[in-house]
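WARN no homologs supplied; continuing
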Amino acid sequence: MEQSESKEDIYNRAKTQHATLDRRLQMLMKKPYLTDDEEMEVRILKKKKLYFKDIMERVGEEPKKGEKD
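OK structure emitted
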Protein backbone atom coordinates (compact mmCIF):
# COMPACT_ATOMS: atom_id res chain seq x y z
CA MET A 1 0.00 0.00 0.00
CA GLU A 2 1.32 3.37 -0.94
CA GLN A 3 1.35 6.28 1.49
CA SER A 4 -0.55 8.44 -1.03
CA GLU A 5 -3.54 6.09 -1.18
CA SER A 6 -6.60 7.20 0.73
CA LYS A 7 -8.38 4.86 3.11
CA GLU A 8 -11.22 4.67 0.62
CA ASP A 9 -8.82 3.65 -2.18
CA ILE A 10 -7.28 0.95 0.00
CA TYR A 11 -10.72 -0.32 1.02
CA ASN A 12 -11.99 -0.38 -2.58
CA ARG A 13 -8.87 -2.16 -3.86
CA ALA A 14 -9.14 -4.79 -1.11
CA LYS A 15 -12.86 -5.22 -1.81
CA THR A 16 -12.18 -5.73 -5.53
CA GLN A 17 -9.45 -8.27 -4.82
CA HIS A 18 -11.69 -10.09 -2.32
CA ALA A 19 -14.52 -10.29 -4.88
CA THR A 20 -12.18 -11.55 -7.62
CA LEU A 21 -10.81 -14.27 -5.35
CA ASP A 22 -14.33 -15.20 -4.29
CA ARG A 23 -15.46 -15.64 -7.90
CA ARG A 24 -12.52 -17.97 -8.61
CA LEU A 25 -13.18 -19.90 -5.41
CA GLN A 26 -16.85 -20.31 -6.30
CA MET A 27 -15.87 -21.64 -9.76
CA LEU A 28 -13.61 -24.23 -8.18
CA MET A 29 -16.16 -25.24 -5.56
CA LYS A 30 -18.75 -26.02 -8.27
CA LYS A 31 -16.52 -28.75 -9.66
CA PRO A 32 -17.44 -32.27 -8.60
CA TYR A 33 -13.79 -33.20 -8.14
CA LEU A 34 -10.69 -31.11 -7.47
CA THR A 35 -7.17 -32.08 -8.42
CA ASP A 36 -4.43 -31.78 -5.82
CA ASP A 37 -3.35 -28.49 -7.41
CA GLU A 38 -6.90 -27.16 -7.31
CA GLU A 39 -7.26 -28.15 -3.65
CA MET A 40 -4.07 -26.23 -2.92
CA GLU A 41 -5.42 -23.27 -4.88
CA VAL A 42 -8.63 -23.35 -2.82
CA ARG A 43 -6.61 -23.16 0.42
CA ILE A 44 -4.54 -20.28 -0.93
CA LEU A 45 -7.61 -18.42 -2.20
CA LYS A 46 -9.30 -18.72 1.19
CA LYS A 47 -6.24 -17.33 2.96
CA LYS A 48 -5.96 -14.44 0.51
CA LYS A 49 -9.67 -13.68 0.87
CA LEU A 50 -9.25 -13.49 4.64
CA TYR A 51 -6.27 -11.19 4.20
CA PHE A 52 -8.25 -8.74 2.07
CA LYS A 53 -11.28 -8.99 4.35
CA ASP A 54 -9.02 -8.12 7.28
CA ILE A 55 -7.73 -5.06 5.39
CA MET A 56 -11.30 -3.94 4.69
CA GLU A 57 -12.27 -4.35 8.34
CA ARG A 58 -9.20 -2.51 9.63
CA VAL A 59 -9.62 0.38 7.20
CA GLY A 60 -13.34 0.52 7.98
CA GLU A 61 -12.74 0.58 11.73
CA GLU A 62 -10.09 3.32 11.79
CA PRO A 63 -12.54 6.25 11.67
CA LYS A 64 -14.64 4.64 14.39
CA LYS A 65 -11.62 4.39 16.67
CA GLY A 66 -10.98 8.11 16.22
CA GLU A 67 -14.55 8.95 17.15
CA LYS A 68 -14.30 7.05 20.46
CA ASP A 69 -11.20 8.94 21.63
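The chain has a mean pLDDT of 89.
OK
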